[in-house]
Amino acid sequence: MGYRNKPLIIVIAIAVLLVGLMVFFPGSGKLDGPGGIVGNLVSGATGVFEGIGSFFGNLFSAVFHPNALNEENAALKEQIAIYEFRINGMSELEKENERLKEMLGYIEQAPEYDYIIGRVIMKDPGYWFDVFDINIGRNQGVEEGDAVITPQGLCGRVLSAGGNYSTVVAIIDSRVSVSAVVERTRDNGIVKGGMQLSDESGLCSMSFLPLDADLQVGDRVVTNGLGGIFPKGLFVGVIKEVSAGSEKQVIIEPAVDFLHIEEVMVVKEKTGETGAAN
Q1: What is the pLDDT of residues 202-242, one digit of tens each?
Q2: Which of 252, 254, 239, 220 is closest to 152 using CA atoms?
Q3: Helices and strands, counts by H and E, the chain
Q4: Among 31, 103, 206, 246, which is least packed, fewest CB within 10 Å?
Q5: Residue closest to 11 by CA, chosen among 43, 42, 57
């Protein structure tokens, strides 16, 4: 026989060997009688035949259908990948749902303003969300200069508004100044971003404070509504450091995590109202 028949010869030889092992007791060297053979088959036939059937099934598949197992394995991997993709997608939807619930909770607690929810679609290069684009614009009611917040606090303001997108500049950017007040002492000052080419701390400074102001680390800072740019009462951050000198100046740690921003809210005056409540 030629090379093509070698797999068949191997299968037949193994089959003969296994049948022989079934008939002879290990180490006896002689053939059992009919009664002994029947006894052996009754006591262990189920396990033997199941094992032989499984063996021959796998053997014939491997010899005569070498690609079958590979195809089955590839199909199973594909199914696993699909399930993992669906699970990951569900996880992302659940996280987004939680963030939106948090926003709705904020809106319910501060009904004096209208809010337009937007999603971040692009950001400037770098670690921080100091300048980024959102998927809402003039067609949704957004205007240049509008305050932008998250449920954690003040995020920034709208730098420019297109038809269906807007560019937001954050309070950590050096171009943004916020008129604010220390909540405990009622001392007013100006919070300014510190994001420059040589400064990537993600912090802000607060200056023009009274020299005798009794400021402490951990004091909350909120917008005071002066200047008409940012509504009153928005949480800006907490005092991280107080510096002594000819001019009292403090370092502010923003309330918003500017390393992770996905959705924001644009704050609008209520229709028909001319200003925020004092």
Answers
A1: 899 999 999 889 999 999 999 999 988 899 999 999 999 99
A2: 254
A3: 3, 12
A4: 246
A5: 57
